Amino acid sequence: MKEWQQKQAKIGRREVKKILTNGAGTGSSGVSSGSGGGGGSSGDGVDAFARAVTKVAVSQLCEATGFHALQRSAVETLADIALRYLSDLGKAAHSYANLSGRTECNALDVVLAMEDLGLAGAAETSHCVSSSGALRDVMRYVEYAEEIPFARPVPHFPVSKKRVPTPSFAQLGETPPHLHIPSWLPAFPDPRTYCQTPLWEERKSDPCLDKLEQAQQCQKAERSLSSLHLQLSTQGALASDGLKNPQNLVTSSLGDSQLVSRQQWPSREQDASSDKAALEAHSSKGKVKRPAALAHNTFLAPPLPAGEKEVSHITPYRGIAEVDTWKQDSAAPVTLPSVLEVFAPALKPVNKGIEVENSGSRSLEEKPGRLISEMKDRMPVCLTFDWGQKTHTKAMAAKLSLARTVSPPSTKRGRGNTLSWKEEEKDEKSKRAKQILAHAMEES
Amino acid sequence: MNAVITHNPSGEPTQVHSDAALLDFLSSLLDYTPTIPDELAEHYLSRSGFQCPDIRVTRLVSIAAQKFIGEIASDALQYCKSRQAAATKDKKGHQHGKEKRLVLTTEDLSAALREYGVNIHHQEYFADSPTAGTAPSQKTGD
């Protein structure tokens, strides 16, 4: 004991040790040694809650008695004593009930237990329980003492989780699977929860179908590629000729592959060879086609000067029409276009050059103003920003200075057939300067 | 009253009377709300094996506990008051306002509880020498 105390001292805690020895209740103290509120040692949540409630009740009682404040240790001690008294009383009453052959206690058992525990009226010699001194004291207490209800409503504790039992066979209205199982027993769970079921690995996809799908995808890709080629070569009539054959080849080869796939792929070499052939044909066609396509790429081509527009749309539509008609009846023999048509896209730049030359020569004779208007047509976007008077005048001055540096456009025009971008830009700038000047004049 | 009951030669009429009083008292408990909540009393009573469906009996138990605590508290209050009176006598009215405050201390409580058979004292505190801790324990013990 001393060692333990020294240990406690070493830890440095100074705790109030409460030794509760109930001298009055000697009759039942042997039974009640284990339970009761022992020094707040229990880690149980129910006990903690009960102790907290008890502390509140005890402090309420102390307040009613006339105390202004309470020491914490005193409250703990009083709560311990209250809980101990409750459980001791319960035990004594229970033992009295058991003594008279009952399991449930009644008021007389409680009165007897109070006589055992209580101090007043302990020397009662009357054998009448209902007129004992302890009971009379309690009656007087109820009569005269102030009624202090507990500060808050207390929920019923401990809260126990209700377990829902499994319904029996009879409740479910089922008949037990075997004769020896009575119907009041809980029903079996679903068979799938305890029966072993074989697990087959299901194949979602057939390899043959996969190959087929792959081939179709390939075909789609080819088709889109060919359509792209078609788009690129819309200008030339001969482009249609270049497109017809590869597409035809590709479709035929894919048709072959489909057929082959249905026959469980007996020979892949055949398919591969056909593909190869298609590729070769494609590449050979591509060689012919590529320059034409390049030449007719509207994005790569140099900008068209004025007057080119009327010329450009003559040739292409015939080609497209031809392609369309060919698409409609693919079985019909292919009519090869003439050599001139085939090389039309390649020839185009040359034509263009000639036209540019023409326009240039034309522009020589004409006024520069008209050229500017043509340029205006050419320029798709013309952005004018209005940032107020100051910036406006500044911009005007800048434009004027620019215009001064730029030599008259007509001379530039006459210099050559090839129009450089810089010159165009300068023309445009001067034009804008003029516009701004005119605008400023109008404003002023 | 003790004398009346015990020395009555014909005990039966008084017994009937006291039985009726007990029944009245029990029925009056239905309207009484004790400070110790019924739930708390039920919990601890069920722990100790007490089984009773009657709420009045449970209330009787909790009222008994309440009375017990109340008596202890009033005794402690008397101890506290007497201690304060002694202190004010010594100091001759130096700090009247401060001493009026009534605080339930463990010393008063232990003095009050000793009458009810509950022995309470501080744990011995050993500072550095084995003899140092013996003095306070003797003090609290007496």
From TrEMBL, chain A:
Localization of this protein: Nucleus
Entries under InterPro entries matching the protein: BTP (IPR006565), Histone-fold (IPR009072), TAF8 (IPR037818), TFIID_su8_C (IPR019473)
Polar residues bias spans: 249-267
Transcription regulation as UniProt keyword: yes
Keywords, comma-separated and alphabetical: Nucleus, Transcription, Transcription regulation
Region (Disordered): 249-290, 403-444
UniProt feature, compositional bias: Basic and acidic residues: 268-283, 421-430
Residues covered by the Bromodomain associated domain: 47-124
SMART domains cross-referenced by the UniProt entry: BTP
SUPFAM superfamilies in alphabetical order: Histone-fold
Residue stretches spanning the membrane: none
Family according to the record: Belongs to the TAF8 family.
Protein name, as recorded: Transcription initiation factor TFIID subunit 8
TrEMBL record, chain B:
One Pfam family matching this protein: TAF10
Keyword Coiled coil: no
Keyword Transcription regulation found: yes
Coiled-coil spans in chain: none
Keywords: Nucleus, Transcription, Transcription regulation
Subcellular location: Nucleus
Principal location class: nucleus
InterPro entries: TAF10
Functional note: TAFs are components of the transcription factor IID (TFIID) complex that is essential for mediating regulation of RNA polymerase transcription.
The family this protein is said to belong to: Belongs to the TAF10 family.
Name of the protein: Transcription initiation factor TFIID subunit 10
Organism of origin: Sphagnum jensenii
